[in-house]
Amino acid sequence: MNRLGFLLARTLRDEDALQRLSVPQSRLLSDLAGKRLALVGNARALAESRNGERIDAADLVIRINRAPMTSPESHGRRTDWLALAMRLRQADRDRIGPARILWMSHKRKRLDWESASSPGFYLHPLGDFAALRDRLDAPPTTGAMMIDLIARSPAAGLELYGFDFFASLSLSGSRDAGKVPHDFGKEAEFVSNLLKNDQRIRHIR
């Protein structure tokens, strides 16, 4: 598909056509087989940590949206995959330098051609978004969708960094929990249940 075809498919909300730009979810999950993953959220509290070296030691480092990194000591340097629910400015794309883009948002109108035509591009299925939304009784965050997705993979391990469910707010914005459409209490409960039932997953504070 060329750029014009993409713009037409996006305008017409042709999900089948847009999905043809994506690697299959089964292939994405198989790419995680046996790997130790670091999923880095954007909680402000992470800036006070010294987890950077541990993050960079993972087999695969996944960051979210603008992926603010206040220092290598707290956040590390690497970004292998970037999970997006927003358009990136070119300066952010150049700074982060991800090898693979995952478009997690159900809002296809925000999807840009540069992301959709990038190597290994993944488009998260609308059905998966809806299933998690119904489970949480609210639209899930990009982080929650990634945790749900990875939990279904054959990854060897997953460490969560920068996830405090908005207790310290976000490095990527100034809004408080009342001004975003997510239910952070439900997301915290969702992750807590995963931690109890999946020994591969660890929450690093």
TrEMBL record:
Pfam families: Glyco_transf_29. The keyword Transmembrane applies. It is an enzyme of class 2 (transferase). Keywords: Glycoprotein, Glycosyltransferase, Membrane, Transferase, Transmembrane, Transmembrane helix. The keyword Transmembrane helix applies. Its EC number is 2.4.-.-. InterPro entries: Glyco_trans_29, GT29-like_sf. It is found in: Endomembrane system; Membrane. GO terms for molecular function: glycosyltransferase activity. It is a single-pass membrane protein. This is Glycosyltransferase family 29 protein. It comes from Paracoccus broussonetiae. The lineage of its organism: Bacteria, Pseudomonadati, Pseudomonadota, Alphaproteobacteria, Rhodobacterales.
